[in-house]
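ENTRY TYPE: paired fold submission
RECORD: A
CONTENT: sequence, then structure tokens
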Amino acid sequence: MKKKISREETERAIYIDYEGNTDRPPTLLGWSVDGSYHAAILESSFLTCQNRYRAKEIFYIDHKVLAKKLIKQASRACKLFCVNTGGSVIGDRGAGHQIQS
């Protein structure tokens, strides 16, 4: 049986949401930490979209590099990961998980 996530854990969580086609690597990654929202372009085909009119804070970064940074941030701050996987949200308390390419 899975342990329920506490209210404190939900307030301290890093929430992640991927966007893109299900049959291809993700195009965009959005995340929220401590009430601040961030986004990154993961697909180089969309590089020209960074830092434009409605995307002033969006930048291009390699998916693995960003994922490793978020995992490091979560493990340093003992934060919980909550990932949107096509409509459902899953939590992950543990560290040491590998990123799949």
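RECORD: B
CONTENT: sequence, then structure tokens
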Amino acid sequence: MLLIFFQPSLPPKVCPPPKSNIIFKPRLEHRATKPQPFSLEAKEEEARKRKAELVRLAEEEARKVSIPFDEAELPRTGLSSQSGT
């Protein structure tokens, strides 16, 4: 047979009520946001330079990889460029 012992419940801890003679009044400094002028010209110019550099590098890489093309080296297939006749 099991005996279960219960402790008597303790009363909950309660905070004391606030003092009525102290009133909460925060001191707020009211500040407005002042917009400042700005320009995106410097960022746009930097982006243009970066893009031009990437294009230049891509063209340079394509020139390195490309093989000179000579039409005379192509084999003849015997097909004429005219179709239908």
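NOTES ON RECORD B: The first helix runs from residue 41 to 65. The CA atoms of residues 30 and 46 lie 39 Å apart.
STATUS: closed
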